[in-house]
Write a structure and sequence with these properties.
With 428 residues, this protein is an alpha/beta fold. The protein is built from 17 helices and 14 strands. The strands form four sheets. Strands 2-5-1-6-7 form a five-stranded parallel beta sheet. The protein has a five-stranded mixed beta sheet with strand order 8-14-13-9-12. Strands 3-4 form a two-stranded antiparallel ribbon.
Length: 428
């Protein structure tokens, strides 16, 4: 499994962190602030009363340090010997010494290895000075940000920071190892006269050009209030209102939702309440599966109005699978319950490889979702509603490159992809 790295480099106060954070949120990936890592090591050096210019002493300390990097939500974290230095990282003493510390070869080697480790388990947008040139030189997704020095000074002053931006830039650009520079293949973006939104839009356009598998360009826009057909809207509105009042419907992770373009939504299945529950996460129509036997009498008219595709639950139903694969390719959002049937005991059961096959063949983003409490609100085998609280947890989308989709394109691959999706659901 390979992950994507977006490299954002540039001088101090050029807007790298703001852009990287916004991209991480929009794309549902992790933002790594590599400068914070150099700052954290500087903090420890100063705390131990070591002179940052005494390379031998710095290296001796470095060898003893336990540095652990991780993430909370979409942001990177760093602990040194079990301590979180983040409250101290913008102090004047750190601003004044971090360039000297980051010029030490052994410091860079240690931190670059930790930076590369992120890519073993997640897509990242990483910002710094040498991300496109040294940390991830082969990534095709590189942006170099810059802004007028006077503008950058203003930004730092506005943040209330004591920081000699020009001095730090000079040191960072002129050092021997991994100096700040425009990496090969990086797109240059000047942020001097742009709003934050303007910079984000420009960066997304650059990434699209560089071939980053954006969930879909259009979905990065705020959700358009598309009209629902009235009969779909009637169901959507009535179920939504009922769920909110009866079950205190709570949604966690709504910021992870991919709001337009094709998405395969994969959820555990607890109750008949589930499909409208998922449908209510969105303000535009989506496609569902429904048991073939429901398409009788009035149901024969109603279910198609609610974009339900009939599925035979007794045997693998290739024709309905083909229908949803086609609809995903046409840009629809489709809900699939990988387990096929509702849970008997509230636990998440085994999944059939169908969802992996649909995902691999359609090649669209996958949104893992976990429903909790619907099995108590309307248990399987009972017609009685209870006022149990329902929670829907939305996970970060699983975004795969075309090569990764290809690697899942046989029976074992479908099973592996299904397992990956189920693991993401269970982790929520
Ligand atoms: O991005 P920042 O201003 O927080 O970075 C602080 C310092 O860390 C910067 O002056 C140089 C150093 N740094 C580096 O050498 N390489 C990186 N990839 C990131 C930061």
């Amino acid at each position: 499994m390979s992950f994507h790295a977006i490299a954002i480099d540039g001088p101090a106060a050029s807007g790298k962190s703001t852009l990287a954070r916004a991209l991480a949120e929009k794309l549902g990936i992790v933002m790594v602030n590599s400068g914070a890592m150099y700052r954290a090591v500087t903090w420890k050096i100063l705390k131990e009363n070591i002179d940052p210019s005494d390379t031998a002493a710095v290296v001796a300390l470095l060898e003893k340090l336990e540095i652990s990097c991780g993430q909370t939500g979409s942001l990177s974290t760093i602990f040194i010997d079990g301590e979180d230095p983040s409250p101290f990282l913008r102090e004047p003493s750190i601003n004044a010494n971090v360039s000297a510390v980051s010029a030490i070869l052994q410091v860079r080697d240690r931190l670059v290895a930790l930076q590369r480790d992120y890519l073993k388990s997640t897509h990242v947008v990483m910002e710094g000075r040498d991300i496109g040139s040294v940390v991830f030189p082969t990534t095709p997704f590189k942006i170099y940000l810059d802004a007028d020095p006077s503008e950058r000074d203003k930004r730092r002053a506005k943040d209330g920071e004591v920081d000699s931006v020009a001095q730090r830039d000079a040191a960072d650009s002129s050092r021997q190892t991994a100096p700040l520079k425009v990496a090969d293949g990086a797109a240059f973006l000047d942020t001097s006269h742009s709003s934050i939104e303007g910079v984000i839009d420009a960066a997304i356009a650059i990434l699209a050009k560089q071939g980053f598998p954006l969930p879909q360009a259009a979905e990065l826009e705020p959700e358009p209030t598309k009209q629902m057909r009235w009969i779909y809207w009637l169901g959507w509105m009535s179920f939504g209102a009922a769920y909110r009042s009866l079950f205190g419907l709570r949604i966690i992770g709504a910021e992870n939702l991919i709001l337009s373009g094709p998405v395969l939504v994969a959820s555990n299945h607890q109750s008949f309440l589930d499909p409208p529950l998922i449908g209510n996460l969105y303000k535009t129509e989506m496609v569902f599966f429904a048991r073939k036997t429901l398409f009788k009498g009035f149901g024969k008219w109603l279910y198609p109005q609610w974009n339900a595709i009939p599925i035979d639950q007794d045997k693998p139903d290739m024709s309905s699978m083909k229908t949803v694969i086609r609809m995903l390719k046409e840009g629809w959002r489709v809900l699939v319950f990988p387990e096929g049937a509702r849970t008997l005991d509230g636990e998440i059961g085994e999944a059939a490889p169908g969802v992996g096959m649909i995902a691999a063949k359609a090649g669209v983003p996958i949104q893992p979702v976990r429903i909790e409490g619907a099995d108590k609100a309307l248990p399987r085998g009972s017609g009685k509603i209870s006022l149990a609280r329902i929670t829907v947890k939305v996970g970060k989308p699983i975004l795969l490159s075309p090569e990764e989709f290809k690697s899942y394109s046989n029976k074992e691959g479908y099973t592996a992809l299904t397992e990956r999706i189920m693991t993401a659901i269970r982790a929520l």
